[in-house]
Amino acid sequence: MRKLAALAVTAVTVTGTLAVAAPAHAAADTPWLSKNWLVQTGTTRMNTIVRGAGADKADKDNPDDGDTATGVALTGSGVGVALIDSGVSPVKGLDGAGKVINGPDLSFESQAANLRHLDTFGHGTHMAGIIAGQDPTFTVGTRFTGVAPGAHIVSVKVASADGASDVSQVIAGIDWVVAHRNDPGLNIKVLNLSYGTQSTQPASLDPLAFAVEKAWEAGITVVVAAGNDGFTANRLTMPAADPDVIAVGGADPRGTDVRADDVVADFSNRGNAARHPDVLAAGRSVVSLRSPGSYIDRTYPGARLSLLDDPEQRFLRGSGTSQAAAVVSGSVALLLQQRPGLRPDDVKKLLTSTADPIIGGDPYAAGAGQINVARAARARTTYTRQVNVAATGLGSLEASRAGAYVYDSVTGTPLTGERDIFGRAWNAPVWTQASAIQRSWVGGTWNGSTWTGTAWATTYTGPRTWSPVTWTGRSWSGALWSGRSWSSALWSGRSWSSQTWTGRSWSGRSWSAAGWTGEPWH
Length: 522
Known about the structure:
This protein is α/β, with parallel strands linked by helices.
């Protein structure tokens, strides 16, 4: 990828009573979830998505070597997909050995041992299932598989049960993924960001854009949700607005397995001539794995399938460009199993040049069309390089938040201005220099504060996990982290396996007035 100089402008089942840490909570415009989570009707199952995208027909043979097809299907085996999201719960389909690797928990719940890495929000588990879910045994009619069932998920949790997450946490997560992409057993080649802010500054300045560009340059294909503001949205959310990454819009399969009647989903951001979705993937009423008792699960019980269709009540439907991005991330894992040497630019070109156009679709909203993995797997690599203006990262954290704040639940103070969750001043020139050489993390320290441990923890059961650390000092509000009631039992319930939690107690602003607008988690 060539860069132009920027313009000089500045398998366990978790049971028992769960305790929810409440060090911060999300504002009404918190950016983590689509307002379309359950507004949509119908059901789009993963087998429909996989067949429609040709993922089941993608052959392991590399067309660049001139050999004939082997007939061996791609699964994404060996490819690590980093998922910066709300964590992943160890539900069936994601509880196999090595399926989920827990990177650092950078969320506000990292200080509660019984919540660490778990998906109390319900978003990350749904994405992980789409990308790489795989049931361990085959049962006719009930076996679930994601797009790349052989891939593994590297989960970096940054959002809490109400979606509380600051843009500084997401940037820190991206930097960690880049720094640790080649750790033994990780092989991170894909980064899924079903996330986006309404940043008020151009990608050439935004720190989120800079972070994803550094990941791209490090050989990680970054897949980002385009946003859920619909056809009237003439721009993409950040960091999908960055021209390097793969920006994914949502398609509506309209309840059929054929693509001839597919349209651009009405929630998908249209963009403009300069920047619009690169490709589309199915994003309406997508069926994936449920995190029982999570915020989404409790708030949208109608998202579950019927007992007749889902006797174990494992699944949840969700709509948005989040789901579409997850489909593309799994598809990228398939291509990278086939051709491990592909650079991100190569992957993007393969997907855009082989996509199925949307007949009569808006040229901006539809982009190149819906991805066709089978066709991409048969196409030869063209080794085309993008030429875009490089992001400087010297813009504002506050502009990147664009009003999506987290609030200290003790003081009610919003996190605003040029500082991170620890109240540390944001020095863009210092951070960009360190991030550019993959030195923004020093052990467990980022931006001058200790966020997490320094190494992989020694465990004998459960998934491989990055070591935690107890936060010290003060939050952005000046209140001591140590003064929090991390173990207060705000929710009660029985298990993650099939039951739900009851009750909820969040102080201050709540999601009840959210309206699902302006939130970064798509």
